[in-house]
Specification:
It is built from 2 helices and 9 strands, in the order αββββαβββββ. The chain is of the alpha+beta class and about 200 residues long. The protein has a single domain, classed as Lipocalin (Beta Barrel). Strands 1, 2, 3, 4, 5, 6, 7, 8 and 9 form a 9-stranded antiparallel β-sheet that branches. A hairpin with a 2-residue loop joins strand 3 and strand 4. It is elongated. It starts with a helix and ends with a strand.
Amino acid sequence: MNTRQFLAGFVAVAIAAGASAFVGPGKTAPATYKVDTQKSVMNWNGKKVTGEHSGTVALQGGTMIVENGKMTGGQFTFDMNSIKCTDLTDAGYNAKFIGHMKSDDFFGTAKHPTSMFTITKVTPKEGNAVEITGNMTIKGITNVVTFPATVKTNGNMIEADGKAVLDRTKYDIRFGSKSFFESIGDKAIYDDFTVEMKLVAKK
């Protein structure tokens, strides 16, 4: 072995040792899991004085960060143009409803075709339960949300399921809100709506 080969080998060992020291004993480096967009979905539900509507929004993409078998972070992008209503059976009324949801009265999908959720903190609870805190961005407006979830790992796959309650007026969605239109009466739509994220990711 010549001097150059010896030095190259020494540097490689030193780098590996340094990386191992940085990760720490008994720990593994964070791994990135890619979201399966075919198996993941965001369900939504909104209520009004006279009823409610539910539907789905498809994931465009995303990743989960896993460390020592536990989810520690992630970022998910939702395709707002994929929004669907699952409770209206009349095709014409359903199409009209979705058209309104995509308009500037609601999500303004022409200007804001995607929404995003970025995990900033995961607090372990009992068993598979966790508390997730992150930044929800809708219509280009970001708010911090915290909600309970369950996270399960199975080999190279991880599943997360959590439901958050959002105040739509914080994202400039004011149509039919009594908070801004007091005389709207029984046509009012409640400010709070729920989103349930069902996420599946693979390494």
